[in-house]
Design brief:
By secondary structure, the protein is α+β, with helices and mostly antiparallel strands. The chain contains eleven helices and ten strands. It has a six-stranded antiparallel β-sheet with strand order 2-8-4-7-9-10. It comes from Flagellimonas olearia.
Length: 293
């Protein structure tokens, strides 16, 4: 089965996307998917089956996985125990392949990064020893999270207790040119979400007609481009709401919407509630007054 291309929304003020899921708020299934970002997943306990590329590997009592970009995979977590925890860390290839490689002191980490393209599953002893470091992410600010990740990468770069799933992984489900086009589209939306998103402009940039662009995007992601853009913008609105107790109208414009009614409908479509209700639940009596319902 051909994997779905997934867009990873990394916040503008950080190099990483880190999500934590407990048993009661389990990670929503993304199905069989692929993305250009690197991904590290720590599952505290319980058993399951890793489906990565052509490989299937059972695990028990949790697992620690590090995947290079563009490796198709299914979800990793499980609900065996009420105290289970899943930490998912994703980072763009530019962060690892361009920024970190300029430091000669990080030679072992850069070697680990290259190995991750084989799909690495670390042994139980490594998983257990680094568990507290992964669980610490929830208490850290952006700077602390970056330092903590570098510390984890440092430890993993010195380990020999891991299993590579592939000698070399080749993404043959998609052509390299198609992957590159998707990455360009994701970057275009990330750079222009607060303003005008022009299908004509991005189509021309990719050397496609508007109709060909829409067909290409639907084929690669199983969704329409406008649906993708709206969800991306709503995720940005959540990012703004969660960073500051900001007026709804300000967030609406910052995230690229111009019509209050349309913004409210899209927010409810993707979040299951209106912007005002979301903010009331989050901030309570501290909520700033606004006119948008």
């Amino acid at each position: 089965m051909k994997p779905i291309l997934e867009s990873i929304n990394v916040a503008v003020d950080t190099s990483l996307k880190i999500e934590s899921y407990a048993n009661e708020n389990h990670c929503a299934s993304a199905g069989w998917h692929v993305h250009p970002e690197y991904e590290m997943v720590y599952v505290k306990n319980g058993s399951g089956i890793l489906r990565i590329g052509s490989q299937k590997k059972a695990y028990s009592n949790g697992v620690l996985v590090f995947l290079g970009g563009n490796i198709p995979h299914a979800d990793f977590g499980n609900r065996d125990h009420v105290d289970n925890l899943e930490i998912v860390i994703q980072f763009k290839k530019e962060f690892l392949e361009e920024k970190l490689k300029i430091f000669p002191e990080l030679g072992k980490i850069n070697a680990l990064i290259r190995k991750s393209k084989q799909g690495l599953v670390f042994g139980p002893e490594v998983h257990n020893r680094l568990g507290p470091d992964f669980e610490r992410f929830g208490d850290l600010d952006h700077q602390g999270k970056l330092i903590n990740l570098l510390s984890i990468l440092n430890h993993l770069s010195r380990e020999t207790s891991y299993e590579p799933l592939f000698d070399n992984f080749a993404l043959d489900n998609f052509k390299k040119d198609d992957i590159k086009r998707l990455e360009e589209i994701f970057e275009y939306v990330n750079e222009h979400y607060s303003g005008t998103i022009s299908v004509v402009e991005i189509s021309t940039q990719l050397g496609l007609t508007s109709n060909s662009f829409c067909r290409f995007f639907k084929k690669m992601t199983q969704r329409t481009f406008i649906d993708f853009v709206n969800e991306f913008r709503i995720n940005k609105a959540l990012e703004f709401f969660n960073t500051n107790n900001t007026l709804i109208t300000e967030v609406m414009y910052q995230s690229g919407f111009n019509d209050p009614s349309y913004f409210s409908r899209q927010f409810k479509k993707y979040q299951g509630t209106t912007p005002s209700t979301y903010l009331k639940r989050k901030y309570g009596n501290l909520l700033l007054q606004d006119t948008l319902l």
